[in-house]
Each structure stands twice: as structure tokens, then as C-alpha cells.
Amino acid sequence: MRLVIDKILNLDDGEHRFSFECKAGEIDLSKTDFEGNEIFPAVLKTDVVLTKSGYTFYMNLVSRTVVHLVCDRCLADTDREISGSMAVVYTNNKHQSVQKDDEELRLIDIRQNNSIGLDKDVRDLLILALPVKTLCRPDCRGLCPQCGADRNHELCDHAVEETVEIPA
Q1: What would the pLDDT profile of 69-105 be if each residue is shown by its tens digit?
Q2: Which residues have CB under 8 Å from 32's CB, separation 6+?
Q3: In Å, how far are 19, 23, 113 from 46, measured between CA atoms?
Q4: What is the domain partition of the chain in residue ranges?
């Protein structure tokens, strides 16, 4: 995924929108879980809102896809939509000061670079958007620690251990 600078420079100052779609392997994001299943099997969709002001480009990037994960409690396969966003300012002005706290400033020499690559940013956004804990559903009961039965689908005679939260 690339934005060609020559084409951006020919655009009028103001807001411009771009959309990209690709497979995970096209941006070097093809990852598999411990069973060999693709984690990113769906198409990755990225929307870019680029605001041009002379030779400074303010870019808001939003990427989303569906990931294939395994439930941490019952080990069931589950699909979940994830998304991530970021704001980046590209400029050839080393003394750029118009920058918000949540934006990353990147210097770019528009005479030597003819495009802005988005692959790494999209890859980073989606990896950071992966959940720390995955549940197939919010009320997942998990597996019985004694017999291994999936408590979502079958009952076993083993007692469910109660957990007690200790106040901080």
C-alpha cells in the first residue's frame, strides 16, 4: 500500500480520501496460530484521510479486519473484528511545530521519496489491536480443570471453584 507523492502534490490543498484492500501476506502479516490456522484470513481494509497543506501531509489512518483466534477459556475457534487508528504528519520542514499530541511527526524528503509506504503502519496497527484475552463469548464457562469437559456444551459432576476478589 503506497501513496504516490507526485500524485499527492498535484492535489489541491484540503482533505482527500483513499481506501485500500489487501490480503495479510501482501504486507508481510501472514501469521498462524499454534494449530497452523491463519490469524488474519480476511481482507484488510484501510481508509486514509489525507489533509494536504502545501508540502505537509496530515494523515489519519484506520485499518480493520476480522481475525481468527482461539478462546482462552474453552479453546473454541472464534472470529473477531479488530481495528486500529493513528495520525501521522509527513513534512519536509524540519521545524514543523503544528502537531497535536496524538500525532507522529515524520520528516520526508519529497525530492528523493516518490511514495509513502503504509504497510508497516497497517501491520503495527493490527498487531496492536489484537486482544490480550480472547473469549468466544462474554459468559464463556471454559473447560473443567478436572475432566476437560467444555462447560459451555456439557455438564460434569465436578464443582465449579468460586474465585474471591480481594479489594485493593
Answers
A1: 999 999 999 999 999 999 888 887 665 555 555 556 6
A2: 38, 39
A3: 6, 11, 22
A4: 2-129
